[in-house]
Amino acid sequence: MTNDSRPLAVFDLDGTLADTAHRQRFLERSPRDWDAFFAAAPDDPPLAEGVALVREHAEECEILYLTGRPERCRKDTEAWIAAQGLPGGPVRMRRDDDRRPARRTKLQILRTLARGRRIRVFVDDDELVCEDAERAGFRVARARWAAASAALKAAQEREGRT
User: Does the pLDDT value for residue 108 go beyond 80?
Assistant: First the structure.
């Protein structure tokens, strides 16, 4: 993180800024094809509502991207952010071997961030993540502009994969 004195605006990627609908099929089969799911991420179209919101917050906040994607996807993830013309900012990702539910990993990271910086808003599409963040005292904006995926919800909660 930078020495920026502005507050943080923390944005999720999948389902918030990136439309994952085209790669859901890899999670709807058994066994789930995680390699193909993440390999298709560079082709995600941006979600206009999320892009507009991140740009709006970038006027007064430092942007930090908080994703459940594994660290091995960093290069593709950072390239996607740049290709969309999104504001620059640090990207926090889960360790490759971290299989905890998204609501636990993200809340832990938010709490760590909040020890050193004020977090103005946290934007995510996962209802469980949002509920836990609100209970912990964070201001949450729910990203409800993408089609929900039952397969992705299961992956986030039960398998700790994204």
Answer: yes
